[in-house]
Amino acid sequence: MSAYVKLKIIKKVAYVEFFNPPHNSLTPDLINKLIKTIIKAGVDKNIHIIVLKSGGDRVFCAGASFNHMVDIKTKSQGKNFFMGFANLINTLRTCPKIIIGSVHGKAIGGAVGIAATTDICYASEYANIKLSEISIGIGPFVIEPAIRRKIGLSAFTQLALKSQTFFSAKWAREKGLFADVFESNSDLNSEVEILANELSDYNPDALFALKKILWQDINNWDELLKDRASISGDLVLSSFAKYFLNNY
To answer: 8 to each of 16, 20, 206, how far by Cα in Å?
Structure first.
């Protein structure tokens, strides 16, 4: 199968699904398609709720594509690459619709930032999480604001520094990243559908007003994430990061 971003509308719920074999890594093209699809769903008056999920049956998302990172030659290219994640995070938080995250498998790096930026996120017990960025010579700088907002500084620090450790989905629920964790992906899908259908019958203006309150005082993220993308863009050119990426 080839990479895709799909939008399926069932009643008043939009299911946005992305996929990139074999591990659902995010390329710049896939990120751009995700952004455009979420913006499209956000302005569609027939859509009241958005569900963000991925295809496949093992990994929710492996984060940034190493194959694309290894090709970065300049600081400008590096910043542009990481701006993809910055723009995706800002698109999710500014979307006028409540976004439900559905994480069915492992979430690594940028994927944890995506989960943290959804308004409410459900997961299966297979959804272990890891921030691997420090171990490869960069850092989780673009996604840090979103993750720290959800789980706090102490838990984020633990994730960031224990960069080769997978933390369990239950740990992520205890810290506040996941609202609930289910025993199977079938149960996860059922509960996400129940929640989405329930919310879709509510007043969309009230949901939008709630979302604005949930994200109030975050207006500086446009500039903040640009600065963070610059940091990551510089570090991806370091000898440490280049050695890792060339020998991965």
So the answer is: 7, 18, 24
